[in-house]
Amino acid sequence: MTTLRESLLPAGTPRVAPHEGSRRRLDAVHDTSVTVPLLILGTRTLAVEICDWVEDIPGVRVVGFVENMDRSHCAQPLEDRPVFWIDELPDRATGCYAIAGLATTHRRIFVQQAAERGVRFTTVVHPMARISKKARLGEGCLAAPAVLVGSHAEIGRHVLLNRAAMVGHHTRIGDFVTLQPQANVAGCCSIGEGTYVGMGALILDHLNIGAHSVIGAGAVVTRDVPDHVQVMGVPARIVKENIDGK
Ligand SMILES: CC(C)(COP(=O)(O)OP(=O)(O)OC[C@H]1O[C@@H](n2cnc3c(N)ncnc32)[C@H](O)[C@@H]1OP(=O)(O)O)[C@@H](O)C(=O)NCCC(=O)NCCS
Fold it and tell me: Which end of the chain is more exposed for a tag (fewer CB within 10 A), N or C?
């Protein structure tokens, strides 16, 4: 995978795996002599918020947004940037990096569409996030301001860690998971692919949360959660089955 850090290294510099953590990544992006062009998939309010976060990262510049559902969103600039229709990306877009700007766990579809059109994804870590040097962040992850990721945590691809989300040590998070603001996942947990964790939810340590499930905002999860269910409340109880993320 390619990270913003790697893309900023001068030619010939040995590349360093992304799990080496945010500090080294940030050292590199503080080299303001290089500008990395970044596309944000999505045109809704979270995409605008992400654009604002990225403006805090020296050496990275949002060059546009991408829309795949409502073509009318391409008619006007967004945050003074162009909005590209997914099937009409300019040639230069393939030289950009991208990040998904959608909270839905169904963003996999958009990510796949963009990847098929030659868009490359990177990992974006806000300067105010703290990612352990011993943690791994997969391609396409976004760590918002005040995010904390503990040592030996493994975060999959295209995971959204919204503001102040916390991931404990030795916890594994699957691809396309969303942790909404202040979601707090304790140490030694696992969360399956495509699960959505609402804001302020607490997941106690050593629990296994299934894939494509939803944890309601403010829930306190005290037991394992199976795949494809929605839980909410304190303690969290299953309220819906056969769901597919959110
Ligand atoms: C869990 C959630 C997905 C449920 O959505 P939903 O299935 O559409 O549920 P509804 O809104 O139809 O509400 C159904 C019932 O559950 C209650 N409810 C909804 N969310 C709840 C929650 N998180 N905890 C406890 N009860 C909740 C509602 O009050 C309603 O109760 P009622 O039938 O007595 O009136 C949603 O409420 C949630 O928590 N979303 C996360 C929001 C979030 O984190 N946003 C981040 C913004 S940055």
Answer: N
User: Which residues contact ligand 1 via a Cβ below 6 A?
Assistant: 180-181, 198-199, 214, 216-218, 230, 232-233, 246
Dist. CA 77–CA 164, nearest whole Å:
29
CA of 136 to the centre of ligand 1 (A): 31
Q: Indicate if 19 belongs to the active site.
A: no
The DSSP annotation for 38-57 comes to EEEE--SHHHHHHHHHHTTS
Decide if 55 contacts 115 (C-beta within 8 A).
no
* Tens of pLDDT, residues 80-131: 999 999 999 888 777 789 999 999 999 999 999 999 998 999 999 999 999 9
- Residue whose Cα lies nearest atom 20 of ligand 1: it is 216
Considering the candidates 19, 106, 169, 206, report the single residue annotated as catalytic.
169
CATH number at residue 197: 2.160.10.10
* Predicted pLDDT at 92: 75
Q: How many domains does the chain have?
A: 2
Q: Is the peptide bond before 90 cis (omega within 30 degrees of 0)?
A: no
Q: Whose CA is nearest to atom 19 of ligand 1?
A: 216
Domain that holds residue 147: 125-241
